[in-house]
Amino acid sequence: MSLKCILPFVILSCALAACDSAPVTPTPPPPTPTATATPETVTLQLWTVLPDKGISEKNLTELTQAFQAEYPLITIKIVGQPTYTDLFRKVVASIAAGTLPELVTGLDSDITRYARLKALAPLDSYMADPVNGLGKAELSDIPAGMMESTRLPDQDNKMFSLPFARGALALYYNWSAMKAIGITNTPKTWDEFKLHAKALTKNPVRGLTYRSDAGTFAAMLVSRGASLYSADRTKSAFNALPGVDTLNFLTEGVRDGWIVRAEGDSDLSDFLVGRTIFNIASTAAIPVYQATITESAKRGGKDFDWGITLLPQVDPKKPAALMVGANIAITKSTGAKQQAAWLFLRWLMGSRVAAQWTQAAGVLPARLSSRDALTDFYAKSSQQRQAIEEIMLVARPEPNIASAPEIHELIEAALAASDSGRTGPKAALDDAAAKANTLLAEKK
Asked: Distance between CA atoms of 169 and 88, rounded to whole angstroms?
């Protein structure tokens, strides 16, 4: 499994779901109970992604056990899938079969499609509950980018999920290698990045290893103040000047030898041995980088200083980053189970629990106030401090669009066509954008 797909269970945003199945309308559930009712003894299934790398089953099991210690009437059973593609297919099949779990995690596009299939319970009434809801002060304590991901514009802007395992795409850098040739700062603009990367390139070392995927491309667009879509989300925008500039930048870097495309997990392995100085990956991959570098050093490999920072920006005074990862939602089920599932979501959103989850799994905290409890965590991992204090506050997700996985595939085909030299960057993006516009029109 690629590192970019660790978003948090993620990353990134790279485990693209399969195409939509025909709409399925499940049997309407009983009326939603109030969140203040005392739950009966219930067992909830939580379907999520448990890849080989990233958030482990052990960490998630410990989290649910801590919840069960406070809510002994509620048992949570974890059912894992290796990728979000697998999970999406399993959930869609369960909708048709009437065997949905009570809780499910998903990438933003997955949550959108589950809501369109009428499989999810809106959270607005639970949020507004005077006892077990989330008040204005608590809502304002959720990072702005994460809040954006919870509401669906095409579903009357209702809330259908809450943050669960979010990260942001960041620039990983080998600080030791940079200082060795006199570089004393991380690159703030793409022009400066190019100068640094070229200066650091000396065979077999390359300045940047990049993944030729839609997530990396989208993150570079965001750093240029642009987006994959128009402001009203009805048209693609990735073939405009920022997109063409991005693809030209990558194509020229590969041609000139200071950028190399990743093969498999070569971005991590090359970074580990100093064959590449910069990588673009999710902040959720920090634990994997830390563990791999530490283990390599124990085996006699080279230890070095490294860090993460924002991708270079077109306007450093207006920084922006792409938020990736997964949210968690409640499916439509019996009233008692829905209410119990809400209590779990509400518990997850507590500042103390959010801080503990960040320390256990390396994901961004779902509450700004959780940072007060992360001082010791920062002391152990300066990279996590950089992720939370420098990147999280300016990170925003892609728009919630149901056809995002198919559009990502079109973008990746355009990247491949440009990489191979078969098609120029502008022509490749124009072709993908025309096809993406058809998808957007079909799935309004």
From this structure: 23
Q: Each residue of 369-426: pLDDT tens digit?
A: 999 999 999 999 999 999 999 999 999 999 989 899 999 999 999 999 998 888 999 9
Structure-token pair, residue 170: 């960041």
pLDDT at position 18, please? 32
Confirm if 259 and 253 have CB atoms less than 8 A apart. yes
Render pLDDT for 45-72 as a digit per residue (tens, 0 to 9).
999 998 754 457 888 999 999 999 999 9
Whole-number Å distance between alpha carbons of 110 and 88: 7
HSE toward the beta carbon, residue 267, CA cutoff 13 A:
27
Non-local (6+) Cβ contacts of 59 within 8 A are 360, 361
Q: pTM for this one?
A: 0.89
Q: Which residues pair with 212 in a beta bridge?
A: none
CB 166 within 8 A of CB 150: no
What 295-304 contacts at long range (C-beta under 8 Å, 24+ apart), as own/partner pairs, is 296/272, 301/272, 301/273, 302/273, 302/274, 304/174, 304/175, 304/176, 304/177, 304/274
